[in-house]
Design a protein that fits this description.
By secondary structure, the chain is an alpha/beta fold. Helix content is 42%, strand content 19%. 46% of the residues are buried.
């Protein structure tokens, strides 16, 4: 793993999370702080150097902003710091917190993200409170933030915060981590338009956004594309003035802590007690009371097992611990009573005076008890119907220093992507659960050991410290990538440099994109006509230089405009070329046309459903234009959908590429593009001055393909591979005139 360099140690680490890192207990003579032992708390401690790990941020105390349920008055004058953390409590009025935390967070976002849309409540007051609460966290941050501080925002309670920070403190690095599943777009789109826009915009205010799995990353990228229209290149979203990295960072646990707990005397004692009390094989599960954890279905699966495998009666006990959570809420109370009844029913049906199949406890356990049970049990049965990651399964594996035991794990837990050696089950499939229990009970010790070893080494390798380090490395690396991508706008000095190089050279080649570079972008593409002045300038260049007009337009349009000039014309993104002086157009390569038959109907359906959008069939490509659409916002959404559908539909063997251009979605063969066409032309002569100008995404190929010595100029401020930028199309004329002037 890459360690961070020294420069990155400059800033303090500021964590913003709903909860503070310690419980504040009010006592007669003041307060006491009880630090949480959770993964995040110890993980971030490793970032400032905890003895076992080198520091990666400044060694100052970690600043931690979080909600406090103690009142302002109670905490007035109290020191809220220990040797590691300094806490900054956020006070949220009770009614706001009710609508914010219980409402928006837990009554809407939680069920939606866990695929329970029927439990989701949409209430305007919720969103208002959510905005208000995020604002309160921001105000607290404003009180303490310093230049160089790295702010790490946690989870779904604070999705609007990254953008608030970005707007006011553009130079501070901001990370955001989402701990629960990010849902597929079909669910996410259920949120009212304004809310989902605010959420997506809020999150991409961060420099690095982390999720547990690649699926969540994909879903989020799709949401960004559909809601805001920003596409992505691999894990990067290019915004006009910065890039955001969206990646998966599967959260982990403190492997060493759980591994060594095996030998802890207290844990050993707990283990012995459990083994003595339960002489049978032990199946164990522990989770908070929540519908996402699949507790009822787990019971149904166990019931099926008892029904189908009577030979195991009296030889197995299922210890199911449910930790109280949100049980003041009616739905949770209802769920709890259903669990109670189901356990009662199964025990009554299968149990007897000597044997109770399910030992059910509704309570929380001490750490020693928990690990005692992990290490005493033969099977961990972890069956959430949806879980961002699920740490319990990782803890189970890490604590099995003896390499014994079988993990049965739901495919719906994020952790399933990493723990393929577990018995992976569908948590809603009773039969699948029953069969897996049987398989696990019969599994030979050698097989258990083999599977455990692989899983253990994976978690050992990528523990919670590696997770935090990884996240922070990405934040700093992004800074370097930013540095590389930072736009350089041409100043007088830069222009003079190009002018001198131009005038001192003898054999020059100049590439000009058409729309947005030589001609302004207008609503009706047919009316985007180059001005007389610009055209006159181009023809002047053409007297002494090789001039190439390079565009995505078809050859008819370009011929009409430029046939009277001694220039090369490249049409349809490099597919068709007409040399200077010739009237003949040459197709760039062997070209088969039949692929269009399958793509065109899809585009036509989209055009029919989007008034004003049109499909253009060019000789070598198909384009879906929506610049002329009646409702531009609706059309943009349809365009995003079209890109998404095409991406999923087009098979790699077809060698087609989808260009998400400026108000156009285009499909063409991958073999040619503006880059390959420009490069081929450059290779035909011995040019000592090469310049290329363009504004569109498709011009990036040209900027990348041309030799390093080329002057590449992006029109506009969008991040680009070009070496320099002009701010707008209006500046092109002035720039070209200067280059030419003596
Ligand atoms: C969210 C996401 C994601 C539980 N009961 C007791 C106890 N625990 C500890 C476990 C474990 C933690 O609580 C539970 O973590 P999970 O990951 O399983 O679940 P959530 O609380 O829902 O967490 C989840 C996580 O965030 C991190 O990103 O993995 O998907 O939903 O550490 O050990 N600990 C003790 N007694 C208990 O009774 N001592």
């Amino acid at each position: 793993m890459k360690e961070l360099n020294d420069d990155s140690k400059s800033g303090r680490l500021v964590i913003v999370a709903y909860r503070l890192p310690f419980k504040i207990v009010k006592e007669e003579k003041g307060i006491s702080l009880f630090q949480n032992s959770g993964g995040l708390v110890s993980a971030v401690l490793s970032l400032v150097g905890d003895g076992a790990h080198d520091p990666v941020v400044s060694g100052d105390k970690i600043q931690w902003i979080g909600y406090s349920d103690n009142s302002k008055e109670e905490l007035a004058g109290q020191s809220l710091e220990n040797e590691s953390f300094k806490a900054h409590p956020v006070f949220i009025p009770e009614d706001v917190n009710e609508n914010y935390y219980e409402g928006f967070c837990n009554d809407l976002i939680w069920p939606l993200c866990h695929y329970f849309p029927s439990h989701a409540r949409f209430d305007d007051a919720y969103f208002q409170a959510y905005e208000e609460a995020n604002q309160l966290f921001f105000q607290k941050l404003e009180e303490i933030i310093q230049p160089g501080d790295i702010v790490w925002v946690q989870d779904y309670q604070l999705m609007l915060l990254p953008q608030m920070i970005r707007a006011k403190y553009p130079d501070n690095k901001v990370g955001f981590f989402f701990h629960i599943p990010f849902p597929s777009y079909e669910l996410f789109r259920m949120l009212p338009v304004k809310w989902r826009k605010a959420i997506v915009e809020g999150i991409i205010g961060a420099d690095v956004v982390g999720f547990h799995t690649n699926d969540y990353v994909e879903y989020f990228l799709k949401a960004v594309r559909m809601v805001l229209g920003h596409g992505n290149k691999l894990h990067y979203i290019n915004l006009s003035n910065r890039i955001v990295k969206i990646d998966s960072f599967p959260i982990s646990i403190d492997f060493k802590k759980f591994n060594s707990a095996f030998d802890d005397p207290e844990v050993s004692k707990e283990r012995l007690v459990a083994r003595k009390m339960l002489k049978e094989k032990i199946i164990f599960s522990v989770d908070r009371l929540d519908y996402s954890k699949g507790i009822l279905h787990r019971l149904y699966g166990f019931e099926k097992f008892l029904e189908q495998f009577p030979e195991w009666h009296e030889r197995v006990a299922f210890v199911m611990v449910v930790v109280p959570s949100r049980d003041t809420i009616e739905m949770y109370q209802h769920m709890k009573s259903e669990i109670d009844q189901t356990v009662g029913r199964i025990n009554a049906h299968y149990g007897n005076i000597n044997w109770q199949p399910i030992i059910y406890q509704y309570r929380s356990m001490s750490y020693q008890e928990l690990v005692g049970m992990y290490t005493a049990s033969d099977i961990a049965l972890i069956t959430p119907v949806r879980d961002g990651m699920n740490l319990v399964c990782k803890e189970y594996v890490a604590s099995r220093k003896d390499c014994q035991g079988v993990l049965i794990l739901s495919e719906m837990a994020g952790a399933a992507a990493e723990l393929g050696e577990a018995l992976i089950i569908n948590p809603l499939d009773k039969q699948n659960i029953a069969d897996s229990i049987k398989l696990a009970l019969d599994m030979p010790v050698e097989e258990q050991e083999k599977r455990m070893k692989v899983m253990r080494s994976r978690i050992r390798e990528y523990d919670v410290f590696a997770w935090t380090n990884d996240f922070f490395t990405q934040i700093t690396m992004l800074e370097q990538e930013h540095e590389k991508l930072r736009q350089v706008f041409l100043t007088e000095k830069g222009i003079n440099k190009i002018k001198n190089a131009y005038q001192e050279s003898k054999n020059r080649i100049l590439f000009f994109d058409y729309d947005g570079t030589l001609a302004p972008i207008v609503a009706d593409p047919a009316k985007a006509i180059v001005t007389k002045e610009v055209k006159a300038l181009i023809s002047k260049f053409a007297v002494s230089d090789t001039v190439v007009i390079i565009s995505g337009r078809d050859r008819h349009f370009l011929s009409e405009l430029f046939l009277d000039l001694p220039v090369h014309i490249i049409a349809e993104h490099g597919a068709l070329i007409k040399a200077k002086g010739s009237t003949e157009w040459i197709l760039n390569e062997d070209y088969e046309e039949n692929w269009k038959e399958t793509i065109k109907p899809i585009m036509e359906v989209y055009a029919k459903r989007c008034p004003g959008a049109v499909v253009e069939e060019k000789e070598t490509s198909l384009a879906w234009h929506y610049r002329t659409a009646d409702d531009r916002e609706y059309a943009t959404r349809r365009a995003q959908e079209l890109v998404w559908q095409l991406k999923n539909y087009i098979q790699p063997e077809l060698n087609l590429q989808i260009i998400d251009g400026n108000k156009v979605v285009e499909v063409k063969k991958t073999a040619f593009n503006k880059g390959t066409a420009a490069k081929a032309l450059v290779e035909t002569g011995d040019f000592d001055f090469i310049m290329a100008m363009g504004d569109d995404k498709t011009d990036e190929d040209m900027f990348i393909e041309l030799p390093d010595t080329a002057y590449t100029i992006k029109v506009g401020d969008v991040l680009s591979a070009a070496k320099s930028h002009l701010r707008s199309q209006e500046e092109v004329f002035m720039f070209l005139s200067k280059i030419m002037s003596k």
